[in-house]
Write a structure and sequence with these properties.
Blueprint lengths: L1 H20 L10 H6 L20 H5 L1 H16 L3 H12 L4 H8 L3 H26 L10
Length: about 140
């Protein structure tokens, strides 16, 4: 009897999982959420390369005047971080401390140190991404030959 109950429970769980994932009755389609996520994913060739060229920032930061502008933008972006994120970022990326050392220095857990550093990097990427997209206007994309 317990085996039969377990099998019935398993069948009900499988049915609920299929319904939650968006399978239709005849299972002819994949879940609609996966299809909806396709436009968000990057387009890649079969060899794993990006289908659209990715902007190369190298030529735009070789110019000394651009380096000065980038340094100012980076300083402004770092100064715009909340103190907790800024401290974790500077200890990790500027001072070169490990996550364990950052956590010990700030009196937080290692997971919290990783989280703060990651969020700070995301903020900087967002801020500098708009700066660098303006800087790469007119720069030819790299050729993938």
């Amino acid at each position: 009897m317990p085996w039969a109950l377990a099998q019935g429970s398993k069948r009900r769980a499988d049915r609920c999982t299929r319904q939650r994932r968006g399978f239709d009755a005849n299972r002819s389609r994949w879940p609609s959420r996966e299809g909806a996520a396709a436009p968000v994913l990057p387009l890649l060739h079969e060899n794993g390369q990006h289908a659209a060229p990715v902007a190369d920032w190298s030529p735009s930061v070789d110019d000394p005047s651009r380096q000065t502008e980038l340094r100012m933008a980076l300083t402004t972006a770092i100064d715009g971080l909340p103190l907790d994120y800024r401290t974790a970022l500077i200890l990790r990326d500027v001072e070169g401390l490990s996550n364990v050392e950052v956590a010990a220095a700030l009196g937080i857990t290692v997971a919290n140190a990783k989280s703060r550093t990651h969020r700070a990097r995301l903020f900087l990427r967002k801020r500098l991404g708009s700066f660098m997209s303006d800087a790469t206007v007119g720069v030819a994309p790299p050729s993938h030959e």
